[in-house]
Amino acid sequence: MMDFGFYLTPSSTIELDKVDRKAVDDLARADSGFRTCIACGSCTASCTAGVFAETSVRRAILSVLNGRDEKAMDLLSSCMLCGKCMMVCPRGINTRHLILSLQKYYNGK
Amino acid sequence: MIYEGKQKIWSDYQKEIPDDHYYYVRSCIRQTFFPASEAALLNITRNILGRDVFENEHHTTCGGIAYHSDTIPQETIMTIVARQFALMKKHGYENYVCSCITSFGIYIEILETWRNFPELEAKIADNLKKTCNLEFAKPKFVVHTSDLIYKLREEIAAKAKYKLVNVKTGQPLRVVEHIGCHYAKMFPSKGVGGAEYPYVLAGMIESWGGEIVDYPERRHCCGFGFRQYFIKANRGYSLSNTHKKFESMEPYEPDFIITNCPGCAYFMDRWQYVIAESQGKTYGENGHGIPVLTYEEVAGLVLGFNPWDLGLQTHQVYVEPLLDKLGIPYEPAKKFLGAKGQDIGCPALPSCLKV
């Protein structure tokens, strides 16, 4: 292949038709928070770990819905399960349970 | 929706295009990329359709490339544009037609700026008088040459020798139309169909027998974008834009692409070669690319012009498969012969993109 000195940048297109809907359905059954989250970002704003490392429950949920499970796991790898996000969630989501459910699901795969 | 109501809403998306008497200005980059397209436009409008399209040698570039590359200030480009308009007036014309989409955007942007800042207009008029000793004037109508061909599309259809139909299957050719961003995205009311439903090229294709392909990234930019291309390190952005469009249109298997912008035609044509040679991916049938044509080239083919007189040999993606579908005869041996029969040289052939 020829090298022109410039390259394609990876596409950021998310093709929802190709997302594994089974994973989303399984996770929503394990914790309904995947469906009830309104992505307000209160969890991320209050996250202690988020100050030091890229940690975001909001983005992790979005990543799961977009079929990016590895990204979701990365975003929660620094979580200390302190539960502050649970206290501020306006939808009353048990974020600690949601995070553990997600880790259990993907680690068990 | 009630039909009359729909028609009324659609009428808001229309643009007044004069039928005749134009002062014509060329595009600086089209003259190097697809020089025969401009000659074809003048031939079609003047000799075949009998319109008065005047051109004189004193007009210059609009300065758009320098302006969009941040190398000249706006007042300089305004004075260049004022000079073009003054030349139009000097030769007794009120309708201004330009060949380039970038120029079209520049003219509309400057006229809108003058409308909103009359003191700036007065300053430019003063600059024009001091530098060129010309009288300031503004055109009554500014149109792009694709608007003009759109206006004349039914007359072209009436004189057509070929239709955009696959002669082997009898089916209309499937055509991707790509509108230059500066045509209607900046000032939607200045383009046929606005920014949401640009119809200028779709109207031509429908009149000439083809079928328009609607695909997800239809309104995405081709990726030219001036600074994305001029700086080599940034060309990956330009290439990625084009790649995104081709990935999106590929499942719809278009027969060819028609564009009304010099940059779009060039980059959608040339980047197919780069994608093929660097990624091994081609988007046409059997390893070919998808031919990318200007609207003048398509009009010329429909009217029965010799493909090599239209400059189709200057395209990166070979057009012969398309000519075969249209049933247009061509002489392969004459492809790389000049106007006087001299050999103009065959370019090196790509290794991946089939020719």
Description:
The complex is a heterodimer of chains A (109) and B (355). By secondary structure, chain A is an all-alpha fold. Chain A has one domain (19-107): Orthogonal Bundle (Fumarate Reductase Iron-sulfur Protein, Chain B, domain 2). Chain A has helices spanning 21-30, 33-36, 42-45, 57-65, 69-76, 84-88, 95-107. In chain A, helix 4 (57-65) packs antiparallel against helix 5. The radius of gyration of chain A is 16 Å and the shape is globular. Chain A starts with 20 loop residues before the first helix and ends with a helix. With 355 residues, chain B is α/β, with parallel strands linked by helices. Chain B has helices spanning 3-11, 30-33, 35-48, 64-68, 74-90, 101-116, 118-132, 145-151, 153-158, 181-184, 200-207, 227-230, 235-249, 262-279, 295-302, 320-326, and strands at 22-25, 53-54, 95-98, 141-144, 174-178, 211-212, 256-259, 292-294. Chain B starts with a helix and ends in a 29-residue tail after the last helix. In chain B, helix 3 packs across helix 15 (295-302), helix 5 (74-90) crosses helix 7 (118-132) and helix 6 (101-116) packs across helix 7. Classes of the chains: A mainly alpha (109), B alpha/beta (355). The interface between A and B is medium-sized, with 11 and 18 residues.
CATH fold field value of chain A = Fumarate Reductase Iron-sulfur Protein, Chain B, domain 2
Radius of gyration from the alpha-carbon trace of chain A, in angstroms: 16 Å
Tell me, what's the shape of chain B? globular
* Major sheet summary line of chain B: 4 strands, parallel
Number of E-type strands of chain B: 8
Main sheet strand line-up of chain B? 2-1-3-4
Oligomer: heterodimer
Biggest sheet of chain A: strands, sense, closure?
A: none
Percentage of residues in strands of chain A = under 5%
Could you tell me how far the N terminus lies from the C terminus of chain A, measured between alpha carbons in angstroms? 37 Å
| Secondary-structure element order of chain B, N to C | HEHHEHHEHHEHHEHHEHHEHEHH
Determine the mean pLDDT of chain A: 92
Number of helical regions of chain B: 16
How many extended strands of chain A? 0
The helix tally of chain A amounts to 7
CATH level 1 class label of chain A: Mainly Alpha
What order do the helices and strands of chain A follow?
A: HHHHHHH
